[in-house]
């Protein structure tokens, strides 16, 4: 016997035959029409109504489906994370705008209060500064002095 391992002495496994491929396992034969009996009108009708082999599904094996599913999930996760980031930026901007508007509102309310007080004070000064012409006219009418 030789000193080579048994794995090297055994013949290599046979290569899979084309008819043993995974694609053939997942294809469903068309039972309504025998191969070669389809007219061009029937083929066109099958394309219009979504029957028959679809180009978008052609060549998809389970590994490719899983790859596409994982790729889609990853895109979805990235998109969701970007949406969360956009929302966070939007909310921060909204909060800063709300704070700014509250501060501006407080300043305007103080200004209104100051102006109302000033207006009241000026009205009092105006009332006190007016000549008592009304009182003097009434007094003159009573006494008869014009």
Automatic annotation (TrEMBL):
Residues 91-118 form a coiled coil. Residues 1-67 are annotated as: Disordered. SMART domains: BRLZ (SM00338). One of its GO terms (molecular function) is DNA-binding transcription factor activity, RNA polymerase II-specific. It is found in: Nucleus. The keyword Transcription regulation applies. GO terms for biological process: positive regulation of transcription by RNA polymerase II; red or far-red light signaling pathway; regulation of photomorphogenesis; response to far red light; response to red light. Residues 66-129 form the BZIP domain. It holds the Pfam family bZIP_1. It comes from the Eukaryota. GO terms for cellular component: nucleus. Keywords: Coiled coil, DNA-binding, Nucleus, Transcription, Transcription regulation. InterPro entries: bZIP, bZIP_sf, Hac1/HY5. Belongs to the bZIP family. This is BZIP domain-containing protein. The lineage of its organism: Eukaryota, Viridiplantae, Streptophyta, Embryophyta, Tracheophyta.
């Amino acid at each position: 016997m030789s000193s080579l391992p048994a794995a090297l002495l055994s013949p290599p496994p046979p290569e899979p035959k084309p008819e043993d491929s995974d694609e053939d396992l997942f294809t469903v034969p068309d039972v309504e029409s025998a191969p070669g009996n389809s007219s061009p009108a029937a083929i066109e009708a099958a394309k219009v109504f979504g029957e028959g082999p679809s180009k978008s599904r052609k060549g998809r094996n389970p590994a490719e489906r899983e790859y596409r599913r994982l790729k889609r999930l990853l895109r979805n996760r990235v998109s969701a994370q970007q949406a969360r980031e956009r929302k966070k930026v939007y909310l921060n901007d909204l909060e800063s705008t709300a704070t700014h508007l509250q501060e501006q509102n407080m300043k305007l309310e103080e200004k209104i209060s100051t102006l109302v007080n000033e207006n009241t004070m000026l009205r009092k000064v105006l009332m006190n500064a007016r000549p008592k012409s009304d009182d003097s006219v009434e007094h003159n009418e009573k006494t008869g002095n014009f």
